[in-house]
Amino acid sequence: MSTIAFDIQQLYQQYFGTKPVVGGAFKNDATPITADGSVSFPAASSKTNTVLGGVLSEQHLGVEIWLPTRLKFENGTTFFLPYSTIRLTGSKSFIRTPLSERRGSVKELFSIDDYKITIKGFFIDKQNRVFPEADLKLLKQFFESNERCFLENALTGFFLDATDAVVINSFELPEVEGGKKTMRPFVLQFESDSVFDLIVK
After folding, report:
1. What's the CATH number where 172 sits?
2. Pairwise CA distance, residues 145 & 167, whole Å
3. Which residues touch 185 (CB under 8 Å, ≥6 apart)?
4. pLDDT in tens, 14-69
5. Which of 41, 57, 155, 191 has the fewest CB atoms within 10 Å distance of its CB?
6. Do the domain assignments include residue 2?
7. For the chain, what is the domain count?
8. CA-CA distances (angstroms) from residue 164 to 15, 80, 111, 183, 192?
């Protein structure tokens, strides 16, 4: 298993330019990534979580971390991405009103924009060591579907509510070198999709 993880890190550096670390590699032996690849932090006090976050910040500041991601359709279909990293970006829109003979402007919050999510990683058939056809078919189904999809990830769980879905804007399957037919690198671009109640008066 360690050999596979090392190879994936090298591949990630080759295709994306950086070398992620495994999220469970803490000095205090805490392991948030479980055997099935899901992320599970200890159900302890906020102090414990703060300690884990502090250790992670000290050890891996500025370094990408493997964060397994699971996509779930409303029809029950699940798309698990074990070899992935994730980036989340948020922004807000303001109404700016300049003031006469004053420096700057008055800013009124107009809206909080959708969260932008980028997931990078690899489709790998590590059981049969063949071309990851099943994953690519699921990607096509997900991209062309009109169904709501929900994202489960250790990072997005802090920002997306239980009712918030995601929509995929675009994806990219970079070219691979000869001899690597069992894997395909990918880049997926998402936006959050919130539910609104419209009241007509």
Report:
1. 2.40.30.200
2. 10
3. 11, 15, 16, 120, 121, 122, 173, 174, 176
4. 888 877 876 543 333 333 444 444 444 334 334 444 444 445 445 555 567 788 88
5. 57
6. no
7. 1
8. 31, 18, 16, 31, 7
